[in-house]
Amino acid sequence: MTQLLPPFEQVENVSQFFQIHPENPQARLIKQAVEIIRKGGVVIYPTDSSYAIGCQIGDKVAVERVRRLRGLDEKHNFALICCDLSQLGLFAKIDTGTFRLLKAHLPGPYTFILNATREVPRLLLHPKKRTIGLRVPSHPIALALLEQLGEPLMSVSLIMPGETDPMYDPYEMRQLLEHQVDLIIDGGFGGIKASTVINLADGEPEVIRVGCGDPTPFMVEA
């Protein structure tokens, strides 16, 4: 059993490592994880698709840390991980048809690119299109974090530069990234595919990335 470090006790800038039950997350550890996030921490956590890396949505320093770790340019669409559709609706412009589509597939392993509202910090937006990726996961740990935090997490899949698939072994994450993040949540082995990405910002659905969510309902026949 891995020894859990006390909250915020950093040893030579080594990240904390919490083993959290994937079905019944321990409330004490979830609370400590959220405290780390609120203090500007960068956190690796499991979702219903793959492991992701996240931080507070308005924290410029933390967002830039994530951008550097992932090797992302300014055109990459970040995602906001929301606890439900009502929260998602605060950050995206959603008409009736789009709402029905989202309701049919969320919670689930999809990221939807939508036109952002003014609630989304500028540093998270696509520089030209003012779009944002949004997710509502079904993973108990992710949902517990979101409920305790009370707002969305800024998030991207944990795919390292030069790789095509997400990291899935928390102990490998610890070995590789313990000096680059503030917390790694071990919720067991993760998925080997990221979420399926669907662009809804331009009207007709467009499949941007095929991941673990079934893309078939969004494919428009020629």
Describe the structure.
The protein has 222 residues and is an alpha/beta fold. Helix 1 (27-38) packs across helix 5 (140-149). The longest helix is centred in the N-terminal third of the chain and has 12 residues, at 27-38. The model is unreliable at 1-12 (pLDDT under 50). A hairpin with a 6-residue loop joins strand 9 (196-199) and strand 10 (206-209). The chain has a single domain (16-214), classed as DHBP synthase (Alpha-Beta Complex). It has six helices and ten strands, in the order βαββαβααββαβαβββ. It starts with 15 loop residues before the first strand and ends in a 13-residue tail after the last strand. 45% of the residues are buried. The chain is 25% helix and 20% strand.
Secondary structure elements and their pairing?
Blueprint: E1 16-19, H1 27-38, E2 43-46, E3 51-56, H2 60-70, E4 79-81, H3 85-88, H4 96-105, E5 110-115, E6 131-135, H5 140-149, E7 153-157, H6 170-177, E8 183-186, E9 196-199, E10 206-209
Parallel strand pairs: 1-8, 2-8, 4-6, 5-9
Antiparallel strand pairs: 2-3, 3-7, 4-7, 5-6, 9-10
Helix pairs in contact: 1-5
